[in-house]
């Protein structure tokens, strides 16, 4: 089969490798029909994250069709259209037993190579996965849209752990793909005022299209003063999708008493917080990591048309052209919100 291999940092090679084989009875072989690019792959290709050690086949946001099943597979058959979780979880640890598969003691993410483990991903024609992480997709959901179920589930999970109250006033720092999916999830879950900030007008236009009530370019205006005009009593929830210390600190200071800060982004490794304010105002800082058991709900929301994925499926391109598209993503080309590869071309 043909696969996109990161053979060295910033060096992709599109070449032939053996088709992976089913090794366990509960596994299925999937012919990948669509795989979208995650921002972590764009950062990882240069070695910036330490989680894409070459050589590695990246890619964890994918959909496809089952072409072979192991003898112990019970829920799926050859020909089924499916999507699979980006995280390989064990299914039997305490976290998995309590529905927190994203916190599994043995979790591994497809397309990641680090000191602890290496597991090839979906920038290839085929991939083998266990049936416990596979989900059926309806015929009315295209493979391109199905490849976005994983990133949408990340935004949906973030809103779920935030424990959103009806009519809460919410700020979303960072209006890229995940920020946009958080905004859509907030609308679905009944948020009140939704404020989006970014330094890119193009992304802010997308945020407005996704349902943000207010958009603020923090590079052109004093975001804090503008937000205080919209929410003079403070914010109920702040989502930090950027992950920078300065952003997190500013967001924390704009929360009302009893407010929640949800940490989504992963840029700065350490952030200093004002402990006295957190304690005396009873603020909550909540981490969120990928998604847990939200896939079925996300598939239903996308299938029903309640989620707008159109801006993210405009660039469905051959996997063989991946190196040039990665460069365009790294350069933050205007209007290029998402790229989805077709491994069959």
From TrEMBL:
Kindly indicate whether the keyword Electron transport belongs to this entry: no
The keyword Metal-binding is annotated on this UniProt entry = yes
Any matching Pfam family: ADH_zinc_N
Q: Which SUPFAM superfamilies match?
A: GroES-like (SSF50129), NAD(P)-binding Rossmann-fold domains (SSF51735)
Superkingdom of origin organism: Bacteria
One term of GO molecular function: oxidoreductase activity, acting on the CH-OH group of donors, NAD or NADP as acceptor
Q: Give the matching InterPro entries.
A: ADH-like_C, ADH-like_N, ADH_Zn_CS, ER, GroES-like_sf, NAD(P)-bd_dom_sf, Zn_alcohol_dh
Gene3D superfamilies associated with the record: Medium-chain alcohol dehydrogenases, catalytic domain (3.90.180.10), NAD(P)-binding Rossmann-like Domain (3.40.50.720)
Domain Enoyl reductase (ER), residue spans: 7-341
Cofactor field? Zn(2+)
Keywords attached to this entry: Metal-binding, Oxidoreductase, Zinc
Family membership noted in the UniProt record: Belongs to the zinc-containing alcohol dehydrogenase family.
Q: What is this protein called?
A: Enoyl reductase (ER) domain-containing protein
The protein's organism comes out as: uncultured Spirochaetota bacterium
């Amino acid at each position: 089969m043909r696969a996109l291999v990161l053979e060295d940092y910033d060096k992709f090679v599109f070449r032939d490798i053996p088709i992976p084989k089913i090794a366990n009875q509960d596994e299925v072989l999937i012919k990948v029909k669509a795989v979208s690019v995650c921002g972590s792959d764009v950062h990882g290709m240069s070695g910036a994250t330490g989680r894409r050690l070459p050589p590695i086949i990246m890619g964890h946001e994918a959909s496809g069709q089952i072409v072979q099943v192991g003898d112990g597979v019970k829920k799926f058959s050859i020909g089924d259209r499916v999507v699979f979780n980006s995280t390989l979880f064990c299914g039997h640890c305490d976290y998995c037993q309590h529905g927190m598969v994203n916190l599994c003691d043995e979790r591994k993410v497809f397309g990641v190579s680090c000191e602890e483990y290496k597991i090839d991903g979906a920038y290839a024609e085929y991939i083998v996965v266990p049936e416990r992480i596979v989900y059926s997709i309806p015929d009315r959901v295209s493979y391109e849209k199905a490849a976005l179920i994983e990133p949408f589930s990340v935004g949906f999970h973030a809103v779920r752990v935030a424990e959103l109250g009806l009519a809460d006033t919410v700020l979303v720092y960072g209006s890229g793909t995940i920020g946009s999916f958080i905004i859509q999830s907030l609308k679905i879950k009944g948020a009140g005022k939704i404020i989006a900030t970014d330094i890119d007008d193009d992304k802010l236009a997308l945020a407005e299209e996704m349902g943000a009530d207010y958009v603020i370019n923090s590079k052109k205006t004093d975001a804090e003063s503008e937000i205080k005009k919209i929410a003079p009593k403070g914010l109920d929830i702040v989502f930090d999708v950027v992950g920078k210390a300065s952003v997190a600190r500013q967001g924390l200071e704009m929360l009302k008493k009893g407010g929640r800060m949800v940490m989504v982004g992963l840029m700065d490794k350490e952030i200093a917080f004002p402990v006295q304010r957190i304690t005396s105002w009873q603020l909550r800082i909540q981490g969120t990591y990928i998604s847990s058991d939200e896939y079925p709900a996300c598939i239903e929301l996308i299938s029903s048309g309640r989620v707008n994925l159109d801006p993210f499926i405009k660039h469905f391109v051959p996997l063989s052209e991946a190196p040039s598209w990665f460069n365009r993503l790294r350069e933050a080309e205007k209007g290029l919100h998402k790229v989805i590869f077709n491994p069959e071309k």
